[in-house]
């Protein structure tokens, strides 16, 4: 198509271009990004498919398609991603919340829904998706969230504010700022990619912070730190729930047992891969 004019024509041209750049969700991305530029839901684009774009709209669309062609993730371009049906602000300072991580939140909610006032710690909160969702779904809980990155904490704070929940945010490298404090539940989606695999991640993931992804030489460095001091930061009978990589369903439970925790269950994600480990600490 030589000269696109309408919404549908621009989507087709942009999708073709993104496909050539290697985006495997080119059509969807072209639609999401035009929706973002025009402030319209995807469905509304179809309703108005014949409407011509104005020059400023075309310029804005070109700019975001250019970013996407450089394989910047759609969530970072639009600045937002939905997690458990709530919009979360995201930036290049935080890992974009993933659907698999919703399973981790659901496992915590299941365990604590009947508790009167559970105390919950989220380690490496990033966008705050886990901590804020828990504060929303367990309004009786006292939620603390830590991250080593002040930039991430700023994003997480703003997400807590948008959801009108109270979360205690602290700048802390794992337990560093928490000496003497114990919780009924510790939850974390730590970085778990082995360093040697970082360079092979798809280009979109390479736009995400390596701090949130790089789990050291064997991918287990942060699990070791979380496990080693879990007993010092859990109440007796407290739970530790972790997201894990698809191939860590043996190694992480092993680490947890070595640290004196009892592993109750490993749950799989939508793809049938090991994703969540549930453990408890009984003195
Ligand atoms: N699930 C992420 C991925 O896309 C990794 C997240 C993490 O390291 N915690 O690879």
How would you characterize the overall build of this protein?
- With 283 residues, the protein is α/β, with parallel strands linked by helices.
- It folds into 2 domains: 7-70, Helicase, Ruva Protein, domain 3 (Orthogonal Bundle); 84-280, 3-Layer(aba) Sandwich (Rossmann fold).
- The chain has 12 helices and 9 strands.
- It has helices at 7-20, 26-38, 42-47, 55-69, 74-78, 99-112, 129-137, 150-162, 203-206, 221-228, 230-233, 251-258, and strands at residues 80-83, 86-89, 119-123, 142-147, 168-171, 183-188, 234-243, 262-268, 274-280.
- It has a 7-stranded mixed beta sheet, with helices on both faces. A two-stranded antiparallel sheet has the order 1-2.
- Helix 8 (150-162) links the parallel strand 4 (142-147) and strand 5 (168-171).
- Helix 1 crosses helix 2, helix 2 (26-38) crosses helix 4 and helix 6 (99-112) runs parallel beside helix 7.
- The longest helix has 15 residues, at 55-69.
- The termini are far apart.
- The model has no long low-confidence stretch (mean pLDDT 97).
- The chain binds glutamine.
Q: What is shown here, in short?
A:
The chain is α/β, with parallel strands linked by helices. It has two domains: 7-70, Helicase, Ruva Protein, domain 3, CATH 1.10.8; 84-280, 3-Layer(aba) Sandwich (Rossmann fold), CATH 3.40.50. It has helices at 7-20, 26-38, 42-47, 55-69, 74-78, 99-112, 129-137, 150-162, 203-206, 221-228, 230-233, 251-258; strands spanning 80-83, 86-89, 119-123, 142-147, 168-171, 183-188, 234-243, 262-268, 274-280.
Please name the defining characteristics of this protein.
283 residues; alpha/beta; Helicase, Ruva Protein, domain 3; Rossmann fold; 2 domains; 12 helices; 9 strands; elongated; binds glutamine
């Amino acid at each position: 198509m030589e000269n696109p004019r309408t919404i549908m024509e621009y989507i087709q041209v942009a999708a073709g271009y993104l496909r050539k750049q290697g985006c495997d969700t080119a059509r969807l991305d072209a639609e999401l990004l035009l929706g973002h530029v025009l402030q319209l839901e995807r469905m509304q684009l179809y309703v108005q498919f014949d409407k011509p774009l104005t020059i400023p709209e075309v310029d804005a669309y070109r700019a975001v398609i250019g970013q996407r062609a450089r394989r910047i993730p759609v969530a970072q371009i639009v600045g937002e991603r939905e997690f458990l049906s709530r919009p979360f602000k995201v930036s290049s300072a935080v890992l974009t919340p993933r659907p698999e991580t919703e399973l981790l939140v659901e496992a915590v909610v299941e365990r604590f829904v009947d508790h009167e006032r559970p105390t919950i710690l989220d380690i490496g909160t990033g966008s705050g998706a886990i901590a804020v969702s828990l504060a929303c779904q367990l309004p009786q809980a006292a939620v603390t969230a830590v991250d080593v990155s002040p930039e991430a904490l700023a994003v997480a704070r703003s997400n807590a504010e948008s959801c009108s929940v109270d979360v205690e945010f602290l700048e802390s490298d794992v337990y560093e700022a928490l000496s003497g404090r114990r919780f009924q539940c510790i939850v974390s989606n730590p970085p778990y990619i082995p360093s040697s695999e970082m360079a092979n991640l798809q280009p979109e993931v390479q736009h995400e912070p390596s701090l949130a992804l790089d789990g050291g030489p064997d991918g287990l460095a942060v699990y070791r730190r979380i496990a080693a001091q879990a007993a010092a930061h859990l109440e007796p009978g407290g739970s530790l729930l972790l997201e894990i990589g698809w191939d860590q369903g043996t190694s992480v439970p092993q680490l947890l047992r070595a640290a004196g925790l009892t592993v109750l269950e490993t749950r799989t994600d939508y793809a049938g891969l090991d994703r969540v480990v549930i453990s408890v600490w009984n003195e």
